[in-house]
Amino acid sequence: xxxxxxxxxxGCKYTDCVDVCPVSCFHEGPDMLYIxxxxxxxxxxxxxxxxxEAIWADVDLxxxxxxxIEINGEMSNKYPVIHxxxxxxxxxxxxxxxxxxxxx
Length: 104
Prior knowledge:
Elements: E1 3-5, H1 16-20, E2 26-28, E3 33-35, E4 55-57, H2 67-78
């Protein structure tokens, strides 16, 4: 099992989840975060830290969000690891300006 970031994170500028991750499995794209499923240790720490409730256990994903398992795997290999949150806990921050990471 691994945790998955879903579409509720698109455009989200919160990075609180990153600070509680013991293995630095979050990767930052231009408009959302992704979890590397190979690095995630299933600790569940990030789930309660996500204000938009965008993080799910892959086994609990609703059927209409199954595509996010593959998207997280692909995009986490494309974008750099984010090791710490940006800004103040519970407040949105600015993500780096890059081309959209939304799947086509």
